[in-house]
Amino acid sequence: HEIEKEHRFKTFKENVEFIESFNKNGTQRYKLAINKYADLTTEEFTTSFMGLDTSLLSQQESTATTTSFKYDSVTEVPNSMDWRKRGSVTGVKDQGVCGCCWAFSAAAAIEGAYQIANNELISLSEQQLLDCSTQNKGCEGGLMTVAYDFLLQNNGGGITTETNYPYEEAQNVCKTEQPAAVTINGYEV
């Protein structure tokens, strides 16, 4: 127990030194700060929180359509776009130790697309995708496209709100009778 405590403290100090050095540089477009992961090494963080299971790619029978680039000229595309300033993204969400970034990113993409099309931002349920999109691997990883296919094939494209079906940081039994707050009719990759 004492050895683990010493390891965590040593890692924390090293990370604080890195953060201070990075922020002093002044050439970066962002700043680093201490958070709840500051006592983890990069390897520990990567192992725990950045799992992509590519085995799902070969198993998926996707309903996606593939389209060409939508702009005739790249001069029409702005150099940058801050969707936060346009109210198109929710606040930061935390998936915790459950490796379901696929559910968070799928819900966030739907939230943003819906807001842009309808001028209304609705926080959608990652937990519904985590519990019900069983072709994905729950907290062990998954794909956004598999989540979209689940919605299209089982829910008429509908997903409920985060308020109706809140995030629990674990995969649970699917609560099937949920009202759809937003409906998709397809997706593109």
TrEMBL record:
Keywords: Disulfide bond. Residues 77-189 form the Peptidase C1A papain C-terminal domain. InterPro entries: Papain-like_cys_pep_sf, Pept_cys_AS, Peptidase_C1A, Peptidase_C1A_C, Peptidase_C1A_papain-like, Prot_inhib_I29. The keyword Disulfide bond applies. One of its GO terms (molecular function) is cysteine-type peptidase activity. One of its GO terms (biological process) is proteolysis. Signal peptide: none annotated. Residues 1-45 form the Cathepsin propeptide inhibitor domain. Belongs to the peptidase C1 family. This is INT9 protein. It comes from Solanum lycopersicum. The lineage of its organism: Eukaryota, Viridiplantae, Streptophyta, Embryophyta, Tracheophyta.
